[in-house]
Amino acid sequence: MFSKSPPRAWAEIDLAALAANLRVAREAAGCDLMVVVKAGAYGHGLEEIARLLAAREIAFFGVANVGEARRIRAAGVETPVYLLGPTWEAERGEIVARGWTPCVSSLSEAEHFDRLAAAAGVRQKVHLAVDTGMGRGGFVAEELPQAMTALERMAHLDIEGIGSHCPSADEDEEFTRRQIAVFRKTIGLLGGPARFKWRHLLNSAGLLGYDRDLCNLARPGLMLYGVSPLPDFQSRLATVMVLKSRITLTRTLPAGHGISYGREYVTAAPTRVATVGIGYGDGYPRHVSGRGAEVFIRGRRCPILGRVTMDQVMVDVTAVPEVREGDEVEMFGPNIPVAEVAEKAGTIAWEIFTGITPRVVRRHSGA
Hints:
Low-confidence stretches: none
Distance between the termini: 34 Å
Number of strands: 19
CATH architecture of the largest domain: Alpha-Beta Barrel
CATH superfamily of the largest domain: Alanine racemase
Number of helices: 11
Radius of gyration: 24 Å
């Protein structure tokens, strides 16, 4: 029998840090929370995160699709599930049967839910999705008051909530404030805040940076996983995921030696080079290549050399002579912020987290 080898790449998920970030979100929002756990809880492990947070008085778990809702229920979690986007016609019967809460974006979608609920002998809870500027789904704000007459005739719908989404709360304050005003006006035209049990608009950036008095439900996502979309608030959040690998090889390469595909990097002097067992096949972004990305080894930042390959990266460890094969390497975490990696890759932290592939082992601790 062969001994079980350790993983080449793994992600350490600190559940205590996530719980601490939840407390920050709750304090900042000042209202109930819909915790966004779509895309595998932003790559952190859907079932583990749902189980942890289910006991912490969460109003809803927000998911992208029926498959994610099924996984939450299969994990033994009974917290109400909210579907954040439009649903396929073939999914709606299961949504009604299982008592999940969809948003509705059109009269045809609402009518179908009403017929299914009538056939099942239930009243289906739904939230109205309002398009206040995102352009992705929902009733266009100006058209919803007219549609409301038809919606309220659907006897088997319980229109318990209304929501919209902030596409630019971390980038465009002026637009976001106009958007909040549109949402407020729309609710006023539909009968006022008391008409709806739940009113929600604000994501992580929204609840951290804007007026919250209109809403009684907030939808934190990214901030729970340790990254603030508004930099001024980053110090209040704890790092949840640390992506790690190990050094598999160390060598000294002579001057004039190319490193990685395309020979975009050539050594100018003898260079101590460590090969690390992680690459874009694990979700570490190839687009950081040649852009000054670093990793953290034995208390020092070390630059990545040449292109990131599918399974390996090469790192200059000349300044850390004590480095040995088997040493741990932090790809991002408390010393190399994931936001820094995202910036060098020309993308966003959301994509980095959700792009970590299944071959990266998740290790959850600290619950």
